[in-house]
Specification:
- Two copies of one chain form a homodimer.
- Chain A has about 400 residues and is an alpha/beta fold.
- The first copy, chain A, folds into two domains: about 170 residues, Acetylglutamate kinase-like (Carbamate kinase), CATH 3.40.1160.10; about 150 residues, VC0802-like (2-Layer Sandwich), CATH 3.30.2130.
- Helix content of chain A is about 35%, strand content about 25%.
- An eight-stranded mixed β-sheet of chain A has the order 3-6-2-1-9-11-12-10, sandwiched between helices. Chain A has a six-stranded antiparallel β-sheet with strand order 14-15-13-16-18-17.
- The first copy, chain A, is globular.
- In chain A, about 50% of the residues are buried.
- At the A-B interface, helix 1, helix 2 and helix 3 of A face helix 1, helix 2 and helix 3 of B.
């Protein structure tokens, strides 16, 4: 079996962590498997590099910031490769460039455009275990470009796709994907399996186990992901296309995103093109909008509300206020003290009444729902930030996730 | 004018040092010159990387050690390039590989085999100041290889040669080359100019201003070197082919190497091939020998003595003891408490009596000379280590180096 194994920053934080990881890889190899290893930078070493840059320059150029940050992962690859060799395992470190990962020129958030894994294949054929630097690739003109936060997940999954690996194992300091964040919902339990779509919704709704782009890549290339703990032997979570459980529960997991703000434009004309103007201005400035509500028109005037990432508030405020002037609207209202809680499950496909049960769980706890957004397998509610954790626990409980009981089949 | 400017580790030790260096480069550019910058790793950051490796592995593989160590210089290039850009100077960082520095596979002490400076030329033509990582290059198969201690000097001088630069400026925390190490001989004075041959002898006799291989490369490619202080405006030392002073003093500078050991083989047969056997065994194990004395034979038996680097003593001892058995010799004697002091000057070419004056200076101070070695422009003596610093000062004094007076012309 060919496995790609990715070890995150906390798994390689110190030389002794790296030695542990090397032993783990040795065990897998001794069972006759082939492994391609992908590593992140050691612990907080990336933060240290960012500090150096910030001590010099307020806004560093993207190219140079990437040239700086890529070194963190390079250090880990060399150290892990030399440790493997000391254990008698032929191994070799690869930078993103050496591993054939070709990216766009979007420094700091580059896209993988293609992968040429010829050197990795050659190493594997020669019995050498490649140790690849995550988070980075190379542009057509040889510049190093990084893939953005969590980019090592994407490196691992993309390599697994390019190499037709049997599985991509993502090791971190958590034991897989839980029904909710265990720091918020103490009786959350780990999930043994998830579909790509569920994981995508979870990742984009604030669960930080896997990078969204990485999961999307896995879905597009049918890469089976196994998320698990580096230093504990729990089973972890498998993420793949096919639902493994015959009858799935309506809700698989719940997620929370506390970094949300709500923007309202009050009293804008109810005429075609208003929403298009507003949202195209925001898109041009790279601000993502999520849930949108347009109120029922009265006196030919409308209210429009939408949610954005908290950190975009300062830029969004000035852009929206300019739109207000253009549109002769009445007021801009921004509430940056809201949060989004979501219930996710591919089991809700074709099951009526799931949304109603989410809303009832919140109503029973006197939590007011400010906005609602849904997809085929997700129900999201914007609530006051102070109510969000309680609301999350209520939904988790209402769907019996602590025991993973399908409450449609077995209502409490 | 096209200048290559190299800044050593102490010149880029902190972000504020890097900011100073950026301003220095800005001044040179503002005078209409073009600059290619070469940098070392920040301060003791290379030692930190070595510590990480040593915490994991006793003897790391050369390839992985180089993959690890190269990151130190990469960090400096990115930081300096982003600082230059902030000052409004178009700049770009280059790894050794990006700069087109192609090396042999001798990891840890690779030779530069060729330089393809096309990307550097392109950057210069576009008005961009390249900032190149010293100490490293890339093998034919894309592995990073480092050039050994002091290798950034070699990077700078080789690039100056490949780019036909007008001059290669080597900046460090010392104000150029002195007549002797000022920490040992307080009245040592800086030299304004030196020939390549003098600098080569000085560098290989223990003066640590410039790497020997770098000076040899400069000589071979007629690169003018200017060694000077980063943060002080002293004139520094120019190193080039032509003697600039019409009548040169007999001795230009003196040097000391305290890391020498003397090895003696007593009572080996006086027959052909004995020395060849001994020295080929040592060469096979990478041990350099320097001065050699063979005593006058008596009873068909000989004594052979030679000097080696102190750190090679443990390995040399066992090899020489094996040879002793093969040769049926009588004893091996090793003295690791000696030092080598040297007087160097291209002015001694064709001047008789210089060696005699060196020996007399030592004899007048009751310093016993154990071994003697000479080249056309150098006289070296092995003395007891405890006498070495005093001997160095005596020679420095005997040739009037404190005032740079040519004592042949004007004897004291």
């Amino acid at each position: 079996m060919l496995l790609v194994q990715k070890f995150g920053g906390s798994s390689v934080a110190t030389p002794s962590h790296i030695a542990e990881v090397a032993k783990k890889i040795q065990q897998v190899l001794s069972r006759g498997h082939q492994v391609v290893v992908v590593v992140s930078a050691m612990g907080d070493s990336t933060d240290h590099l960012v500090d150096l840059a910030e001590a010099l320059v307020a806004i560093p150029s993207g190219r140079e910031m990437d040239a700086l940050l890529c070194t963190g992962e390079l250090v880990t690859t060399a150290l892990l490769a030399m440790k493997l060799e000391q254990l008698g395992i032929p191994a070799r470190s690869f930078s993103g460039s050496q591993a054939g990962i070709h990216t766009s020129y979007d420094f700091g958030r580059a896209r993988i455009e293609s992968i040429d894994p010829a050197l990795l294949r050659k190493a594997l054929a020669a019995g050498i275990t490649p140790v690849v630097a995550g988070f980075q690739g190379v542009t057509a003109t040889g510049d190093v470009a990084t893939l953005g936060r969590g980019g090592s997940d994407l490196t691992a999954i993309a390599l697994a796709g390019a190499l037709n690996a049997d599985r991509c194992e993502i090791y971190s300091d958590v034991a897989g994907v839980y029904t909710a964040d265990p720091r918020i919902v103490p009786d959350a339990v780990p999930l043994s399996c998830l579909s790509y779509d569920e994981m995508l919704e979870l990742a984009s709704q604030g669960a930080q186990v896997l990078q969204t782009q990485a999961v999307a890549y896995a879905k597009g290339n049918q890469v089976v992901i196994h998320a698990r703990s580096t230093f504990h032997d729990e089973p972890g979570t498998q993420i793949e296309a096919e639902p493994v459980i015959p009858v799935k529960p309506a809700v698989t997991a719940v997620a929370i995103n506390r970094h949300v703000a709500k923007v309202g434009l009050l009293g804008v004309p109810d005429s075609p093109g208003v929403a298009a103007l507003l949202f195209s201005v925001l898109a041009e400035h790279g601000i993502n909008i999520e849930l949108v509500i347009q109120s029922v028109s009265h006196d030919n005037l409308n209210d429009i509300a939408f949610t954005i990432d908290e950190q975009d508030v300062p830029r969004a405020r000035s852009l929206v206020e300019q739109c207000l002037v253009t549109l002769h609207g009445k007021a801009v209202v921004i509430d940056d003290k809201v949060a989004k809680i979501s219930a996710i499950g591919s089991g809700m496909l074709g099951q009526p009444g799931v949304a109603a049960r989410v809303f009832k769980a919140l109503a029973d706890s006197d939590i007011n729902i400010q906005m609602i957004g849904t997809s085929e397998i997700k129900i999201s509610c914007i609530v006051a930030r102070q109510d969000a954790e309680k609301g999350l626990a209520e939904i988790h409980n209402a769907f019996g996730l602590n025991g993973l009981v399908d409450v449609i089949e077995d209502p409490q």
